[in-house]
Design a protein that fits this description.
Elements: E1 5-6, H1 12-41, H2 47-58, H3 61-71, H4 75-100, H5 102-121, H6 133-152, H7 157-168, H8 172-181, E2 195-196, H9 197-224, H10 227-234, E3 287-292, E4 299-302, H11 303-307, E5 311-319, E6 330-339, H12 340-346, E7 360-365, E8 370-374, H13 375-378, E9 385-390, E10 393-394, E11 404-406, E12 420-426, E13 449-454, E14 464-473, E15 479-486, E16 491-493, E17 495-496, E18 506-514, E19 517-527, E20 549-555
Parallel strand pairs: 3-12
Antiparallel strand pairs: 1-2, 3-4, 5-6, 6-9, 7-8, 7-12, 9-10, 9-11, 13-14, 14-18, 15-16, 15-19, 17-18, 19-20
Length: about 550
Amino acid sequence: MDDDSTSTPLRGIKRLSLGALSGLLAGYAAIAVAELVSAAVRPESGPVIAVGGAAIDRTPPAVKDWAIRQFGTNDKLVLQLGILAVLTVLALVLGALAARWRLIGSLGVLAFGVVGALAATSRPDSTGITDALPSAVGAIVGACLLYYLIGRLGRTGDVAGQASASRGSVSGDGAAQTLDDTAPVQADGSDGSGWDRRGFILAATAAAAASTGAGLAGRALNGSQGQNAVASRKDVVIPAPASKAAPVPRGAALRIKDISPFMTPNGDFYRVDTALVVPKVDATSWKLRIHGKGVERELTVSFDDLLKMPLIERNITLTCVSNEVGGPYVGNARWIGVRLTDLLTQCGVKPPSKGGPADQLVARSVDGMTIGSPVEDVMDGRDAMLALGMNGQPLPFEHGFPVRMVVPGLYGYVSACKWIEDIELTTFDSYDSYWVKRDWAQKAPIKTESRIDTPKPFGRPKAGTVMVAGVAWAQHRGIDKVEVRVDDGPWEEARLATEDTRDTWRQWSYPWQATKGGHTLTVRATDRTGETQTEKRTPTIPDGASGWHSVVVTVD
């Protein structure tokens, strides 16, 4: 016999190990081929993205909130890595199962392809049955590969052993050995009961190489699909606004180490959304449709149409409802866009206070996200806009290019639709948007909040004058007062920076005469309506966290 094939059947740990390896290779091939096929369909139809999106849609709000707190803007990367880890374990298990039951293990791979296909076609942004192709084709390739590789291992040990014993019973142990040694060799290099070592190694190596090539090709092709969108963004020239933002007043930005900058750079601006793949929309083909209840004249506008309209420029602070007390998901930027009221008025829309039948504006994104905003708030005179630019640039893709909604005073989940493509006027009674279906409140004005930026929690400042500083916000109401308390002492009023507008946050500072030892610093704010930030701690669900922010420090 050739050294690369043996009539001895594989048994025990060795067979299970090679079976698990076969499963891992089959899973790798399935994912890689699916990635390649998704390039011919659309990147979002790939199984990892589709299953990840479905997982996000079905995850309880409390778990989502926990993920955002723990992983921040890396929550999507963690989810995708988690999905790959689970798929790896399942591939190993299916491979080990196939080592004993070849067909059942292979069918298991097909079953997971069905899961991926169902996830892809059930997504809100699904384009139809073609979204199932990447998962289906990948699963078929993976199942066939697993079936083939397990075949190189020969028959399972108990079956091969029974066959050997049957042959050996003719003339004793010696005759059995002779019969085994002279058994006819099959075309695949095995004798029908043993395993084909050379065939297995060659097939496994070829599968790994081909899968890697397919995966890299798919990744490259998927990446190239956004080139038109990237080019369209580079070509955007935003005209000078008809209504410019006033210069940031002197004294609005304090020069204190470690305090949040008054204007948040685009690269540092928080991002919280459900998109595992950032949509790359070509501005030259983008359209927005406005329709629904109370719309007298339906309107469809292009990006160029918006550029030709009178633009407004405003400094507005945005806040995510997932922001815990003292959390980082708040930022201030200079936005430029078209006043949303102008477009709605052009369509004949009236707010409920003026007899309009619709009280909810549902914005839809290209990725299927729906966000519901109160029509009354959008049309009450505040600077709600369809934003085209951010801090002097076209919107970054991560923040909604080509167009997104910005509404001062409302948490993002009820106002800040990114990659928007549709606006429907309806009622809160007749339609629940994405987050409302997941137990968040229908309406969510931003709560009055404040945060200590410096000193940091568990910091060790030196005794003497320590500058305590941070930011406070109550968009569309404005901040009137900030107070600081040391331990259980009296509340002391902090120095407020100059206010820019009531729609932006406000910096503050408090020179503390620090004494040695451990201390707790606490802050609270009062908005322009006279309402003081509540001490009561509440979670982010259903309409935003509340409570006083405090930090513990040790003074040396």
